[in-house]
Amino acid sequence: MFVFLHNLCPLSGFQVEGAVFSCKSCTYDSCEYPLDCPVKEVVVAENNRTQMRCDVLFPLPGDIEVVWRYSETETQLMELLKEVTAGTDRLYSIPSASTQHAGTYQCEIFTEGRSIVRLYFYLTVIPQVVIGHSELQSIFERTLVSGGQPSQVISDPSVAWLLHLPSPSLLTACLSGLLLLLILSLGFLLWRTFQTESIEAQGSRCVEVEKYVLQFETA
């Protein structure tokens, strides 16, 4: 006698593949796998890519249908989950995560119209502002511990440039030098303007004197 384990499990709320058939009693004794799997935590930084895959520990039939649902809250209640997509794709991908993507994602696999398993993912999206603040706080703490020198290389490009800034005293000296150079440049420009105006004024007076002399000689 051949026993096929793809028949319905007698206990509701359990996966069909978890049914154990007893040849002695000719009944299913137990179901090992619950239909609803525990919620899996997924954390991603804002603007980064994230993926959730509907994987199970048992072989799936070839005619499966995969339904993805979403809820803004952390829940496993079906009435709070709204269908997002349905098909055969067990991979759900978000190219650039934002805070609006945070929430619960449910993946339910069907075969021949009946549910096989439901997986849950709770997605947490960390805003870039929080990440930047955490990185700066970490740099500050490591600098204090290491006596003013960072003890670890920071991989985040948006924060790593802070490690290459010069000391405050050097910045003050550079700014003071630039300010002095600016003042000297302005002074030189004012002096040149004054000199030009003086030369022009002297030339005008010389022309007037020559005109006066010519008029006097003619008279």
Protein architecture, described:
With 219 residues, the protein is of the alpha+beta class. The protein is 33% helix and 29% strand. It has three helices and nine strands; from the N terminus they run βββββββββααα. It has helices spanning 128-145, 157-160, 168-218; strands at residues 19-22, 27-31, 36-45, 50-53, 64-71, 82-87, 91-94, 103-111, 114-126. The strands form three sheets. A five-stranded mixed β-sheet has the order 3-9-8-5-6. A two-stranded antiparallel ribbon has the order 1-2. The protein is elongated and about 145 Å long. Residues 1-12 have low confidence and may be disordered.
Q: State the helical fraction.
A: 25-40%
Report the C-alpha radius of gyration, rounded: 40 Å
> Based on CA inertia axes, which overall geometry fits?
elongated
Number of β-strand runs: 9
Helix-and-strand structural type: alpha+beta
Widest sheet: strand order? 3-9-8-5-6
Mean pLDDT: 77
Q: Work out the strand percent.
A: 25-35%
How large is the count of helical segments? 3
Q: Biggest β-sheet: count, sense, barrel? A: 5 strands, mixed
Order of helices and strands: EEEEEEEEEHHH
Distance from N terminus to C terminus (CA atoms, Å) equals 149 Å
Q: Name the poorly predicted regions.
A: 1-12
